[in-house]
């Protein structure tokens, strides 16, 4: 019998493979039924709907979620907010990423089953 989501053990931080010429780091962790994502990316392809990375099955959502992220250069805002969409299939894609020098993934989190 599977453990309830909130009782599953801490996964620790695990690396995510970046796609579409993005560089930097992206990691996820599942703790107490909540998925956390952290990292800092340097853009590759900036076309809308470009997939940055794909989450493994244990970290995926039931329904898509959208997060606003602020493109920055050395912690100074460089452009209009970009949008990250986390899809139920695990793909995390960027929209409105033009002008981005770096993209922080800080603050991205959700409960399992959302």
Could you explain how this protein is built, in words?
The protein is mainly beta. It has a single domain (5-111), classed as Immunoglobulin-like (Sandwich). The chain has no helices and eleven strands. The chain has strands spanning 14-15, 23-31, 34-42, 50-54, 65-69, 71-73, 76-77, 82-86, 91-95, 102-104, 108-111. Strands 1, 2, 3, 6, 7, 10 and 11 form a seven-stranded antiparallel sheet that branches. A hairpin with a 2-residue loop joins strand 2 (23-31) and strand 3 (34-42).
Helix/strand/pairing category = mainly beta
Q: Determine the fraction of residues in helical runs and give it as a percent range.
A: under 10%
Q: What is the straight-line distance between the termini? A: 22 Å
Low-confidence stretches: none
SSE topology string: EEEEEEEEEEE
Strand content: over 45%
Main sheet specs: 7 strands, antiparallel
Domains counted in the coordinates: how many?
A: 1
Offer a quick outline of the entry.
The chain contains no helices and 11 strands. The protein is mainly β. It has one domain: Immunoglobulin-like (Sandwich), CATH 2.60.40.2460.
Secondary-structure map with pairings?
Layout: E1 14-15, E2 23-31, E3 34-42, E4 50-54, E5 65-69, E6 71-73, E7 76-77, E8 82-86, E9 91-95, E10 102-104, E11 108-111
Antiparallel strand pairs: 1-2, 2-3, 3-10, 3-11, 4-9, 5-8, 6-7, 6-10, 8-9
């Amino acid at each position: 019998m599977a453990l309830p989501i909130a009782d599953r053990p801490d996964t620790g931080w695990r690396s995510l493979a970046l796609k579409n010429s993005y560089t930097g780091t992206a990691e996820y962790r599942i703790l107490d039924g909540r998925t956390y994502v952290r990292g800092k990316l340097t853009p590759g392809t900036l076309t809308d709907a470009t997939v940055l990375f794909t989450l493994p099955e244990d970290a995926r959502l039931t329904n898509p979620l959208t997060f606003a992220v602020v493109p920055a250069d050395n912690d100074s805002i460089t452009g209009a907010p970009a949008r990250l969409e986390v899809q139920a299939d695990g793909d995390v894609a960027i929209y409105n990423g033009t002008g981005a020098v770096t993209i922080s993934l800080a603050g991205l989190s959700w409960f399992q089953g959302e």
